[in-house]
Design brief:
Number of helices: 9
Structural class: alpha+beta
Radius of gyration: 38 Å
Number of domains: 1
CATH class: Mainly Alpha
Shape: elongated
Strand order of the largest sheet: 1-2-3-4
CATH topology: Outer membrane efflux proteins (OEP)
Helix content: 55-70%
Order of helices and strands: HHHHEEHHHEEHH
């Protein structure tokens, strides 16, 4: 009996010892199909290069405005897209655990009882009925595949990499949510600035219109001057109405991101002058920082999963060995089962050799290799896309200050021009058309300045996102 117990224990141990090799090809990360450093040229500012990267900057340090921090906190807590991404991570983790369980034997306990009634003899005469009872209890495993060629191990590896890819997709969703919420907040602030600009222009145009009417009544101006003054007034009124609608739509978009109603005190006023709500974003010196971006890591994990599936497809060409084994006790009396029961055991290995599968295994291997090639291309494309996004954002950052300086100078010049033109018209030295053109120029210049300030602030957010910011200090 001791030898039988030892034999059964060895059979169970062998199931773990034999699961060794894998036939998956050795994974090698493809070379990044982009330059090692960021682009240079007239659009880029080399003075902004830094040893640090955006990934080292926690989002709470990047977002300096406390109200915007609270809005982002609400988005991270309630956004439905992020909740869906987290649910997908949990589902992928469960799928991996299911697949990984195939690496280990599954033991079951069984307790059975049989009661049978039969005749004592079958010689043509009627015998006395005999009742027999039989009880057994056993522990064993059923059809456990001994992973001789790493098929199960490769499938487990593929499932693990799929789970890790889903986890990286969740991290990418989190980064995007932070950036999208900040951008929506800035857009709302910019539209508030445009609203105030349109309101001031309406008031100014209304005063100008009243002046021209009085001059018309005094016989100094013509009716044409009055009608021309109305054009600026009505244009500003139209802008005021459209901007009011935009502000409402901006709030709706922001509340969709935050997953619920936002308190009025958390909403922004006008857009700040020099994006002081945000910290400067370090870009690093090397484009290798892109390899740590969640979407790039997601593509790499998908590639690793496809690589592992090749191992499983290769292993399908070789025999599979499964094992069914049990050990237990048997007795005609239930009361004696665990005291005087007879020890019983069984070991039943099963070897299956694929002989003819109609080309299925060859097709599966070809498919696995094609999938691997597909994910190599997708991984390389993810890196190239990331490089382009960073390069575009760096180009804007390298030129936006010159644009802002020029736009502010244009506003100052337009304001002086309007003041002079209005004074000349009031004194009768110049025509009203020149004053009207100066007013329009000033209004358009001020609107363009608001747009340029929004572009500058939004580009800081974009640069933070495309460089993989938002994960340092992640809760």
């Amino acid at each position: 009996m001791r030898k039988q117990a030892i034999s059964f224990s060895l059979a169970a141990a062998v199931t773990l010892a034999l699961a060794g090799c894998t036939m998956a090809p050795r994974y090698e990360r493809p070379a990044a199909p982009v330059a090692d450093t960021w682009p240079s040229g007239a659009a880029y500012d080399p003075a902004q290069a830094s040893e640090k990267t955006a990934a080292d900057l926690p989002w709470r340090e990047f977002i300096r405005d406390q109200k915007l921090q609270k809005v982002i906190d609400q988005a991270l807590a309630n956004n439905r897209d992020l909740r869906s991404a987290l649910a997908n991570i949990q589902a992928a983790r469960a799928q991996y655990r299911i697949q990984r369980s195939d690496l280990f034997p599954k033991f079951n306990g069984e307790l059975s009882a049989t009661r049978q009634k039969s005749l004592s003899s079958f010689n043509g005469t009627t015998g006395s009925p005999v009742e027999t009872e039989f009880y057994s209890a056993s522990v064993g495993l059923s059809a456990f595949e001994i992973d001789l060629f790493g098929r199960v191990r490769s499938l487990s590896k593929a499932s693990l990499e799929s789970y890790l890819a889903t986890a990286e997709a969740g991290r990418a969703t989190r980064i995007s949510l932070i950036a999208e919420t900040a951008s929506a907040y800035l857009t709302l602030a910019a539209d508030n600035s445009r609203y105030e600009l349109a309101r001031r222009t309406v008031d100014s145009a209304q005063r100008t219109m009243e002046v021209t009417r009085k001059r018309l009544e005094a016989g100094v101006s013509s009716r044409l001057d009055v009608r021309q003054a109305e054009t600026v007034y009505q244009q500003a009124r139209s802008d005021l109405a459209s901007t009011t609608a935009l502000i409402a739509q901006d709030r709706n978009a922001l509340e969709l991101l935050t997953g619920g109603r936002l308190a009025d005190e958390l909403l922004p006023a006008e857009l700040p002058e020099n994006h002081q709500w945000l910290a400067e974003v370090p870009a690093g010196l090397s484009s290798s920082v892109l390899l740590a971006r969640p979407d790039v890591l997601q593509a790499e994990h998908q590639l690793k999963s496809a690589n592992a599936n090749i191992g499983a497809a290769r292993a399908a060409f070789f025999p599979t060995l499964s094992l069914t084994a049990s050990k237990g006790l048997a007795s005609p009396e239930l009361s004696d089962l665990f005291d005087d029961g007879v020890s019983v055991w069984s070991v039943a290995p099963n070897l299956v050799l694929p002989i003819f599968r109609g080309g299925e295994n060859v097709a599966n291997l070809s498919y696995a290799k094609a999938q691997r090639d597909l994910y190599v291309s997708q991984y390389e494309l993810a890196i190239q896309t990331a490089f382009k996004e960073v390069a575009d954002a760096l180009a804007v950052r390298g030129t936006i200050q010159d644009q802002l300086d020029a736009q502010r100078a244009l506003v100052d010049a337009a304001a002086d021009s309007y003041e002079l033109a209005e004074a000349r018209y009031t004194k009768g030295v110049d025509t009203f058309l020149n004053a009207l053109d100066a007013q329009r120029t000033l209004y358009n210049a001020e609107k363009s300045l608001v747009s340029a300030r929004l572009t500058a602030s939004d580009n800081v957010v974009t640069l933070y996102r495309v460089l993989g910011g938002g994960l340092a200090g992640e809760e």
